[in-house]
Design the sequence.
């Protein structure tokens, strides 16, 4: 979001640059306040609607914090790659939570940190959920077809890596972190409510890629299926950053008060990054 409009390989950001220091406030407003950018819809609106007014969500922004590793040292340590494709001289065994949570807690104090129900970690870059297929098998026929511009900074490595669901994806897509039930999210993510729902012990319902292949039964109508991956133009545009509504078709569930922490990890050829930590609190209200 700090880069020039549509300047990265994935075609983002969709809007003019936001300064690094303004990023946490930008996302807090995007999730909390109706605006033209989110088409007048908020995350709180979804939870209030789905719980009959019993539970609301408030995002509180902190950061940005700078992660000590390049982003691929976190992303290649995630589901599907298990450190495959790690550039020479790197370990690719990083954990955003272990690196950033202590920084946030030291910043706000242990007592304040305990007042939040959930901590949502927003990292610079992409949620692999939104790019693995669109910039993998849908863009390239074979791993050998992936060109250098989609490959790693290490010329001795192939330009493709193993994928979570299929045989390969481009290195640039595969080196991103997946959204997860710790509520870790890339800037492209439409899966916030999906990941929050996991924190109530509800599992995924969205894997049609296991053999024998089968249809995903609920698709875009289920928070724990493809309904959480929508972009402004549908599921295949989920990689677009900060466009469209954070409110998607989803199931009922509880909602938290989350701290929003923004650590952008350092990207492949970029300076070290930071992340906004957005803690969130759940507000209980009396139904009318």
Sequence:
């Amino acid at each position: 979001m700090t880069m020039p409009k549509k300047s990265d390989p994935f075609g983002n950001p969709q809007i003019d640059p936001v300064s690094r220091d303004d990023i946490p406030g930008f996302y807090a407003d995007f999730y909390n306040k109706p605006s033209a950018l989110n088409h007048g819809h908020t995350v709180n609106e979804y939870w209030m609607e789905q719980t009959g007014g019993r539970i609301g969500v408030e995002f509180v922004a902190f950061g940005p914090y700078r992660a000590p590793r390049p982003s691929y040292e976190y992303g290649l340590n995630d589901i599907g790659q298990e450190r495959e494709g790690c550039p020479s001289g790197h370990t690719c065994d990083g954990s955003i939570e272990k690196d950033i949570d202590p920084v946030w807690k030291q910043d706000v104090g242990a007592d304040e940190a305990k007042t939040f129900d959930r901590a949502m970690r927003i990292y610079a870059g992409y949620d692999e959920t939104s790019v693995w297929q669109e910039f993998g098998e849908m863009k390239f026929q074979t791993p050998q077809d992936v060109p250098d511009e989609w490959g790693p900074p290490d010329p001795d490595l192939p330009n493709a890596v193993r994928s979570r669901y299929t045989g390969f994806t481009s290195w640039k897509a595969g080196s991103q972190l997946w959204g997860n039930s710790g509520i870790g999210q890339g800037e492209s993510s439409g899966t916030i409510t999906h990941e929050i729902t996991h924190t109530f012990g509800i599992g995924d319902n969205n894997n049609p890629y296991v053999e024998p292949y089968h249809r995903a039964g609920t698709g875009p109508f289920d928070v724990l299926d493809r309904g959480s991956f929508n972009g402004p133009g549908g599921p295949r545009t989920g990689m677009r950053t900060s466009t469209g509504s954070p409110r998607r078709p989803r199931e009922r569930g509880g909602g938290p008060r989350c701290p929003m922490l923004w650590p952008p990890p350092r990207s492949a050829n970029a300076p070290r990054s930071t992340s906004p930590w957005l803690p969130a609190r759940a507000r209980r209200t009396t139904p009318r």
The chain is about 15% helix and 10% strand.
